[in-house]
Every structure is written in structure tokens, then in C-alpha cells.
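User: I'm designing a mutation panel for Transglutaminase domain-containing protein and want to avoid disrupting the core. Could you give me a predicted structure to guide residue selection? Please restate the sequence first so the numbering is unambiguous.

Assistant: Good idea. Sequence first, for numbering, then the predicted C-alpha cells:
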Amino acid sequence: MFPKWYFRPQSHRSASAFCDGLGKVLFCLTLCTGFFESQAFAKDKMVAPDWVKQASAQPMRAFPPKTDAVVLLHEVNVSVNAQGREVTHEREVIRILRAQGRRGYGSPAVYYNDTVSKVTSMKVWSIGADGHEYAVKDNEMIDRSSGEGFEVYTDSRMRYASPPSVDVGSVVAIESEIETRPYVTEILFPVQREIPVRRERLTITMPPGFIYKAVWKGPDRTKSVDMEHGTTLWEMEDEPGIDLEDVPLSGSAWALVSRLSVHYTGPGMPTPTLGEWNGIGAWYAELAAGRNLPNDAITKQAQSLVQGKTDFAERAQAIGEYVQQRIRYVAVEIGVGGQQPHAAGDTFSHQYGDCKDKATLVSAMMNAVGMRATWLMVDSRRGVIAPEAPSIAANHMIVAIDIPKGYESPLFQSTVTLKNGKRYLIFDPTSEKTPFGQLESGLQGSYGLLMEGKESEAILLPVLKPGANQVNRKASFTLSSDGDLKGHVSEERSGDIAGYRRHIYSEWNSNQQSQFLHGMLARDFTSFEVAEVKVSNVEDLQKTLSICYGLEATHFARVTGPLLMVRPRVLFTDGMRVDRKARFSPIDLNETRRVHDEYDIALPSGYAVEEMPEPVKLDLGFAKYESSSSVKDGKLHYSRTYEVREVTLPAERYDEVRKLAGVIEADEQSNAILKRIP
């Protein structure tokens, strides 16, 4: 299996926190999303064990007002035997601080894989705010699949319980033991989570002849302590919570979590990773060996796709788009199948697979026609993979396509060049609405592990230029003296920024599409009607997506006596939410892009310009914003260009982001004032 993450996420987040097999890690002592009211619980004066009472008796500290709960104690003890089998004993005690914490932390659970793991013991207790103690009976615990919905079948399971009297001030505790036969010898221990942690301990015991290497993501939170009999201890206290729920322009909290990764090996163990990227690459090469070999059917299909094409980019595009658009995303995860790709022949035959299966099929089809592509392990949460912390912690697999030396193509925008001069096109065959040659925004600027066996290395994924993601909007209106507006709107999108709109107009029904457009326009108009919506080039990702429609809006301009106040920026906002709080987390700008607006309003006769908004021009390096308004031949013309050139910024540049947000907001709300001519 993939490394164990000993962590308890809030239940409104994904319990496994990973989107597919590459990230299917085992969460022990985590929480389920279900919340049940069971009646038959043991209740005694002396039910909870002493370690639970000792943890719950410690003095409380002050926490931020929105802290749902606090971890009072978290202990993980992993024992590895000479055959490489693990026995994990874990304890955790949590105090509920807010009503919201009851659902998030009131139902403790163990996550496991029933092919390679066995829960040998699990006990759950609660101590109510009134001091009464409860123990959950074995027959009151629930065991079910923990799949996330995209799997045809998965052997990932969860066992959980919901003790009574879980309210503000109460304590919930769990103790479990799991026996595991791991496929990879790495243990992950995040030392932070969304809620504060008062005390936590990780203890690992190994037999003679075994060695380990500990790697930290982020600063070392503590030093290891060598105990007797092959035991090593790490102990931490008072770790703050990382809650980004109310933080604007924030990425994933997982990217900020400090984590300890312990790689170990010993006599007879599988290929060791030993805390090095090339070690992880060698391990995966062994795991995936032979899986990307083409059979006759794959070879025939690949040759058919590239027939008559001599240009490298055209040949690569034909294969990439076939797997991207024709192979359905479906996962079958059993044991090592959660990490090991299925044979390319099976994926091709079934016409479905998960991310690593689709990546493997791309590699096989390219092998069949004299091209080459390899696996690239990534994480959809920018910042989770860190070059200084080699780890198998990731949730996605894509491909890196070898580019011939000296070859160039305008189609290839998401390329990387290694120190040795080798060039690769980075492509995600799972991202169904991202044009071939580009990379979805969530992966840009993050790191990934290029799988080249013992030559594997962590590489920085490209950040595309703004021109790769373009939005061009044009509108022509006529304004009446009553302030009503009537006209026509067109919007063109190209690149990954068109992906969501392509999804809407290919997957949603007409009623949902209408609701979406009306929801967008309701931000700028109080009363309006849309007519004759036309959408073109939805399926062809290399063509510009076009959306056109008629629009009528009443009371758009405000009439005040002889004055008519008109907003030149008629519709669509490019503003961003910011706050005035101190900033500690990186700033996530989502994606690079270039947005251009051109709006014309034919003004009612008998009015003259009294006042016009000042032109705006701001260039902060990471973004540029320009706009201007003018009147000529009875028409009010508004032009705006907004470019975002980077996807992330350090926290210390938040003042610049605030400045940009303020400039955009002021420009979008500015008005031209017209006065009736006597």
C-alpha cells in the first residue's frame, strides 16, 4: 500500500484526501462522515482508561474562536518484524470545542485495506461534558467501504463508531491495532492538521539489520530519540492548527502541513526508497515493469492514429487525445492495484482506467510507434510535493513525453527542460477538458516525480504564459433614456480556462446551463432577460470556445434628475476577495490568464458627458491591469485588459495583492455621468 498517513481530517473534507489509487493511503484513527445516534452504550463510573482521563484532565489553553476541536493526545506505535510486517497501535483523544466539531470529530474511525490489513482491535470511548463516561460495544461499530465513488471496486474500508454525549466540552477517544503487510516501506506522520494538537508521539521499532531515513517536509519539528531495542521516538507538543477556510486566495492546507516521512528497509525487503527520489523511482519502475508494453491491439490502434502524420506534435496529439477523450476514468483498486497500474492491454481492452492506467496506456501506444513517454507522479494540491522531502505522498499520475532534440512546436506549451538538456511535454490524459500541449492550472508551478528508474528526479512543472489562457469578451448595447439596456454579448475562451465552460455545455442539461448563465449575470443586473444563446466549438479543445447571446436589462443606468449614471464595465467581474488580516500562508492566484473586454454603449440622444472615470494602469509584475473609458460618436466605449503572470506568491506580497484587488474593484464600480442637454 502507499504510506500510512496517521491523521484525522475533518469529515466535511475527503476522508482519504486523495483522488485516485496513487494517493490511496491508509488513514488510521481518522473520522467518518456519518453521524449516528446509537442507544445501547456501556455507561459506568470507571469506563474510560486512565490514559484517556489523564489527557482530558490537562489544563485548557486559549484557541482561536473558530477552533472546532483540539487533539489532546495522539500516539502512534509501529512495530516492524523481520518479514516486514507492521503492527500499528494508535491512541487519540480529542476535545470538542464547538458544536461544529461534533460532526467533524465525533465519530472516530479506522481506515484500512482488507487485502493487506486487518483490524485486530478497536475501542471507542466518550466522556460527556457532565463527566459521565461511555464505551462503545463491538457490535455497535460499523464497517463499510471507504471508496470515494469513482471506483468500480475498492478494498479500502473503514470501521467507525459514534459514541453518545458528544457535545461541546466532551471528549472522544479511540484506541486501535492494525496488522499490515505493506507494499512500500514508508510511514508518513503529519504533525499538523486543521485543529491544534497538544501532544503527539511517533514510535517505530525495527528488528536487527533494519535501517531507516527520516525526512521532514518543512522545518524539523523535533529530533529523534534512540530508545532501546531498535526503537526510535519522535515527540511534538502544541502544534497550531492550519485552517484556511476563511483565508482568501489560499491553496490546500495539506501544502502547509509539516510532515515526517520515515523510509525503512532491511534484509529481504522490497526495493528500498530510502528517502531519495531516485529510490522511489526505482521502486515504481519495478512495480510498473512491463505494464506499458503494447500488444497487437494497441499497436494497431496507435499506428492507425498516426497514419499519414509525419510531424511529431501531430503524432503525439493523436495518441494523447485518444486516451484523454476515449478512455473513461474508472478505477478498480484491489491491494497493490491501488498503486500499480493495470497492464496497458487490459486498459485498452476495457476502454477504462484510472489516472495511472491512462498514463500507462499513453506510454504503451507511444512505444508502439517509436515514441516514448514515462510516468510523472504529481499532486493536485499545489505544494504537497516538496523537492527537499522525497516521499510517495501524492494523489495523481500523468505523463512526460520525450521531445526529440531540437524539435519545436507552438502546440507544446507545457514543457520542461532538465539539467542534462532532455525536454519533456507534460500532459495529463485524465484532464478531459485541457487542450493537448497544455497543463491544467492546479498542477502548474508544483513539483512532480519524473519516473526514470534510478535516474528519477523531482521536477518543477511549468507555469504557462498568460496567452495560453485567454478570455475575450465583446458587447454592444443601446441605452434608453430610462436607463434600460439592450444588446448582444459574445465571449471567447481558449486554453485550460475554457475547461469549466466546456464541461457545463457538454455535460449539463439545458436548464442547468441556463441557471449557470443567469447566476453569472445576476452579479451585475437586478432585472434582465437572456435570449438566443449559441455555443460553438465545445468538444474541439484546440478551437476557441464561443458563447453568444442577446441581453436586455432594465434600470441598468441610474436616472437622477437631469443626470444619467452609467457603468462602463457593463458585465463580468475579475475582482478577488481579500481581507485586512495579517497573512501567513502563500497566495494562490489559481491560474495565469489574459482577459480582455471591449464594450460599447450607444447613448440616448440629448445627453452630454459630465464626468468620465480616469484611465487605470497598474503593473505589479505578477499581474497587470489596464482600463479606459471614452465617448465618441454618441457611444461610450470601455476597454480593459487583465493579465495574471504567476500562480503563487509568498505571503509578504499580500499588500500588493490588496492593492490590485482595490484597483479592480474601484474600476469595476466606477460610473460615467451624463447630463441632459437643456
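For picking mutation sites, this is relevant: DSSP finds ten helices and 42 strands in the chain. The first helix runs from residue 50 to 57.
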